[in-house]
Write a structure and sequence with these properties.
45% helix, Arc Repressor Mutant, subunit A, 5-stranded parallel sheet, two-stranded antiparallel ribbon, 193 residues, globular, Rossmann fold, disordered N terminus, alpha/beta
Length: 193
């Protein structure tokens, strides 16, 4: 174990117990995902506050000044990069991970330039988030032990769009640019592993 700024580091990264300040801000406009992740991260030892919008997240960033943050890129009222920049203004040493369902290289570069340590594409689970938040700054987070299959990621994305379209099959099919019957077949099947 080497010492890094007074924080013990193990070969696999840090532990939440290594930090005095365990505050975590989760910013995502998907209510069920945000609530589920907030509960899971509390069980892991983080002190969690969450926000749904850029406006609420910026207010919390100013008052709460989190040591850790998980911020979705696209929020219903704006861009998560604005939240990342605000967190960095109030607390330079914050460990921020950018989260998005729209993964691409330019967005990852923008997130890191804005002050994020890492970038993750949805869907993610609490273990992946914890690994990314606690990774040593000079190391990347370990790849997930059991990542979702490509079929499962596709299935999750389709169901998310379906829910966002208020479970309207025609609207979902139009937005996903797929035939309505094909979508109905996918929706009738159980989730792949």
């Amino acid at each position: 174990m080497e010492c890094m700024g007074g924080i013990k580091q193990t070969p696999s990264g840090l532990k939440i117990s290594d930090f005095e300040d365990k505050t975590l801000l989760i910013v995502d406009d998907d209510d069920s995902f945000r609530n589920r992740l907030s509960r899971a991260m509390e069980k892991k030892g983080f002190e969690v506050k969450d926000a749904k919008t850029v406006v609420d997240a910026i207010k919390l960033a100013r008052s709460f000044q989190p040591n850790f943050a998980l911020v979705d890129l696209r929020l219903e009222d704006g861009n998560g990069l604005d939240v990342v920049q605000e967190i960095n203004k109030t607390r330079k040493d914050s460990r921020i991970v950018m989260l998005t369902g729209y993964g691409n290289l330019p967005t990852a570069v923008a997130a890191v330039k804005a002050g994020a340590l890492d970038y993750m594409a949805k869907p993610v689970d609490a273990d992946d988030v914890e690994s990314a938040l606690l990774a040593a700054p000079n190391l990347k987070a370990k790849p997930p032990e059991n990542p979702m299959s490509a079929d499962r990621v596709k299935w999750e994305h389709i169901h998310r769009v379906f829910e966002l379209c208020n479970r309207n099959v025609s609207e979902t099919a139009r937005r996903l640019k797929m035939h309505r019957r094909t979508l109905q077949r996918i929706l009738s099947k159980k989730s792949p592993r």
